[in-house]
Amino acid sequence: MSSPLPLLAFHSYQTLRLSRTPILSPLLIVVTEGSKRIRLGERVLTAPAGDWLVLPGRQRVEMINQPDPHSGHYHAWALGELDGWQQRLHELYAAQLAGVPLRPSADAFAPTPEAREAFANLLALLPSAAQGSLQAAQAEHAWQGLMLALAATGRGGALLARDHRHNTERVLQLLRGDLSRDWQAEEIAAQLAMSGATLRRKLAAESLSFRRLLQDARMEQALGLISCSLQPLGEVAAACGYQSPSRFAAAFQRQFGCAPSALRQMSNAGDRLRETGAPA
Fold first, then answer.
1. CATH second-level architecture of 166-270?
2. Contact assessment for residue 60 and residue 256, using Cβ atoms and an 8 Å cutoff
3. What span, in angstroms and rounded, lies between the C-alpha atoms of 120 and 267?
C-alpha cells in the first residue's frame, strides 16, 4: 500500500506512561490484554481488556498502558483510516447516519458482538490489502461495517463526524508523505497554492501552528515505528526528520517523558525473552 497502514499493534511488558501523546486524527483503540488509561485534561478514561476507546483528533493526551498482572503483557490495536474512506462512507450512507445520535467526544465502552465481528473481519483483511486490489476493497467494506455497527449503538461519533478543518488535513497529508524531509511552511504553502502567511493564518484559525503540527506528526510516526517495528533507532530518527539521533532522543523525551531506547526495550522485552526460552 502506498499509504501508511492505518492499523498498528502496541505491546508493553512494563507499565508505560506517555505524556503529551499526539492524536492527530480520530482513533479507535481496541485493548486485548492488560488495560489502558487515557487522561484528557481533568477527564480520565479507562479501558480493560475487551473494551474499546474512541479518541477525537487534534489533541495531546496522557496514555498509561498497564500489563495484565498474570501474563505481564499489554496489547492493543490502534486503528485509523485510509484517505477517502470516511468520504465514501458518508456518500453511501449519509441519510442513515444523519438520523443517528452520536457522541462526538472521547469514549470508552464495551463493544457489541456485531462490532467485534466487524473488527475481526477487518483485522483479517487489512494487513495484506494492497492498494487498488480486490482485498483492499473488501477491507474498506469491512471498515464500513465496523463504523455502521458502532453507529447503530450511538458509539464512535468521533470516527464518523465530518471534520471541516480542511487545511489541517491537507497539510498533514503532505507532511505524512515524507516526514524525513526538512519541511518549511513556505514549501507546504506553495504546494497548496497559497502564501506562507496565508497558511499560518489558516492554521491559526484551527488553533494550530505549522511548527506544532510538524512536530506532532513526527512524534506520532516515531511512536509507531519504535513501538511496532524493529527498525534501528538511528533509522527511526532519520525517517522522522532528525539527522542527529541525540537530538531526536531529546525531542522524544520532551514529548513523551520516556526515552526512545526505554520504550523500545519495554515494547520488545517479551519477544526477546521468548526467543531465549525464558518465560514472558
1. Orthogonal Bundle (1.10)
2. no
3. 24
Instruction: List the single range of 25-34, 38-47, 95-104, 218-227 with lowest mean pLDDT.
Output: 95-104
Cell numbers at 178, concatenated = 515524507
Residue 206 backbone dihedrals phi, psi, to 5 degrees: -105, 20
| Distances in whole angstroms, Cα of residue 246 to Cα of each of 18, 89, 180, 211, 253 | 19, 43, 16, 20, 11
Which has more confidence, 153 or 273?
Answer: 153
Backbone φ and ψ for 51, nearest 5 degrees, come out as -90, 160
Query: What DSSP state is assigned to residue 110?
Result: P
Predicted TM-score of the model (pTM): 0.91
Measured N-to-C along each axis, helices 210-228 and 166-177 cross at an angle, to the nearest 10 degrees, of 50
Count CB atoms within 10 A of the CB of residue 227: 22
pLDDT, tens digit, 9 for 90 and up, residues 83-131: 788 889 999 999 999 888 887 889 999 999 999 999 999 999 988 877 7
Convert the pLDDT of each residue in 134-169 to its tens digit: 888 999 999 999 999 999 999 999 998 876 667 888
Count of C-beta atoms within a 10 Å radius of residue 117:
15
Name the percent of the chain in helix, strand, coil, to the closest 5: 50, 20, 30
For 1-162, give the CATH class. mainly beta
Map grid coordinates 468520504 to a residue: 87
At 18, the pLDDT band (50, 70, 90 cuts) reads: very high
Domains 1-162 and 166-270 are alike in CATH topology: no
Domain boundaries, the chain: 1-162, 166-270
| CA pair distance 272, 180, nearest whole angstrom | 29
User: Which of helix, strand or coil describes residue 12?
Assistant: strand
Distance, first Cα to last Cα, the chain = 33
